[in-house]
Amino acid sequence: MDTQELLETIRKMESPLKRQLLIVALVTRLLEKIGKRPPVIIGGCALSYYSREVYFTSDIDLAYADREALDMVLKSIGFEKKERYWVHGGLKMAIEAPASVLAGEDAPIEVVELGEGLQCSIIGIEDLIIDRLNACKHWKSEIDCEMVELLIIKYMNDLDWTYLEKRAILPVNDTLSEILELKKVGS
After folding, report:
1. pLDDT for 156-175, tens place per residue?
2. Which one of 71, 89, 157, 167 is most buried, counting C-beta atoms within 10 A?
3. For the chain, what are the domain ranges?
């Protein structure tokens, strides 16, 4: 499927999450064509993926270091820069790249295969849990507290607890006691 066909497919698609994943897969394909690494979905869109759309966000947050390449690709498929967002009026989508890299070189990534050779990368569940737990603890975000609990219960047996505890103990996170408590609750 060429770029224009894929954009038309995305425009007609009903599932908001599937639309978001496909647009990032298209961006990934175009970046890889020019020899660049794929962006990584973070934030609310990643939470929507792991929660199976219990949580939904209307924008897509990406971790990507090469802003120039990302900007060029987004512009080439009809996105326009509006302040900190790239907006596509026809698709009714917004993309932001608030982070240039993920925390830690060993950060796990989930690669989602979407068919037709399309794929996108999403922050690993453990790093998403740490991110949301920080929002819960430090910003007093109730929705993030609820989402952390939901994710831990849902993925209890699949989580890399060693990695999760290693990330939680870092001074920037300081969430080890919360992780250990949630591990007990989820068991």
Report:
1. 999 999 999 999 998 888 88
2. 167
3. 3-123, 126-186
Q: Using CA of residue 144, residue 150, residue 153, residue 158, what is the dihedral sign?
A: negative
Q: Check: CB of residue 111 under 8 Å from CB of residue 121.
A: yes
The Cα 87–Cα 79 span in angstroms is 5
Give the DSSP H/E element, type plus range, for residue 141: none
Closest CA to 22 of 44, 43, 45: 45
pTM (predicted TM-score): 0.93
Report helix, strand or coil for 149: helix
- Rg of the chain, C-alpha, whole Å: 17
Q: Are 86 and 74 in contact (CB under 8 A)?
A: yes
DSSP helix/strand/coil, 109: strand
| CB contact at 8 A, 136 and 168 | no
C-alpha span between 75 and 85 (Å, rounded): 12
Cβ atoms 8, 100 nearer than 8 A: no
3-class SS letters over 41-99: EEHHHHHHHHCCCCCCCCEEEEECCCHHHHHHHHHHCCCEEECCEEEECCCCEEEEEEE
